[in-house]
Amino acid sequence: MLLKTTLKLAIGTLLAAASLAATAQAWPARPVRVIIPFPPGGTLDTVGRQLAQKLGDQLGQTFLVDNRPGGNGTIGADVVSKAPADGYTLLFNASTFVSAPMTMKSVPYSVVKDFQPVALVAKAPLSVAINKKLPITDVKSLLAYAQANPGKMTFAVGSIGSAGHLSTELLKRSGGIEYLVVPYKGTAPAFQDLIGGQIDGFIDPILGSLQYHKSGLLRVVAVTSATRAPNLPDVPTVAETIPGFEFYSWYGLWGPAKLPADITHRLNAEVNKALAGDMKEKLAQQGLLLTPGSVDDFARFQAADMARAQKIITDGNIHVE
């Protein structure tokens, strides 16, 4: 009797494993939905659509982008957290995904428990943009101006807990200066007020400020990457004035928790393949740094970034009003 029971359990386990392997091998058998939890048109949406198109081409199946804005990215992410873990609903998001919940009273999911990291796609250096009428041309003159006008300068943030917000707080602390941080509902109105002179500074991914800098509507005085950005070679890094300063926004792909390992690793391989192809040049032209790597690489990167973000948020007492 015991032998029969053991044999049945063993056969059941083998059948379940075979079924899972067959499902993963057949995936994707229908269109895959890629949720981007912010409106169309931004850097996140642009990169996400390029990746979705490339994955569709490589896998011979449609990858549909579904923009679900709201709640500082939590509405779209929540949809993915509650979706079946079958590889047909994915999340493409920025580093705001892991940091913004730390600033909120409640979030309907756990970043760690309810999602499976799949692939880190790219890192985006940020630009320190200043209203062109101010006598600020680099980080040294920025620090001098802020010290001469303590608490009077204003810096915009596009969303609470974003990479731009955290780097704005880090610059203030690292530079030993004070300025007022003003939250905006998105980057577009922040740039409008920066150009119009209602706000003094704004730190955001380079792609957003590049056209305004080149047209002379505002002045990019520094970038937050470790080395100068290829698309802004004449603009110094913050680290050239404040040694060790380095900050990025970054973009990644996640699935719901318990996404089968075969599908997770296949997706990771396909993302890395896409980054090695024509996406490589397209993203580089946008000032992005490609970050191919394994699923475990991404999980470790995410954990380290969350720890760093938590310290900045705690030290700065950052929270959604």
Summarize the structure.
With 321 residues, this protein is an alpha/beta fold.
Layout: helices, strands, pairs:
Blueprint: H1 2-26, E1 32-36, H2 43-59, E2 63-67, H3 74-81, E3 89-94, H4 96-99, E4 115-130, H5 139-148, E5 154-157, H6 163-175, E6 180-183, H7 187-196, E7 201-205, H8 206-214, E8 219-223, E9 248-256, H9 261-276, H10 279-285, E10 289-290, H11 295-316
Parallel strand pairs: 1-2, 1-3, 5-6, 5-7
Antiparallel strand pairs: 3-9, 4-7, 4-8, 4-9, 4-10
Describe this structure in words.
This protein is α/β, with parallel strands linked by helices. Helix content is 44%, strand content 19%. The chain contains eleven helices and ten strands. The chain has helices at residues 2-26, 43-59, 74-81, 96-99, 139-148, 163-175, 187-196, 206-214, 261-276, 279-285, 295-316, and strands at residues 32-36, 63-67, 89-94, 115-130, 154-157, 180-183, 201-205, 219-223, 248-256, 289-290. Strands 1, 2, 3, 4, 5, 6, 7, 8, 9 and 10 form a ten-stranded mixed sheet that branches. Helix 2 (43-59) links the parallel strand 1 (32-36) and strand 2 (63-67). The longest helix is centred in the first third of the chain and has 25 residues, at 2-26.
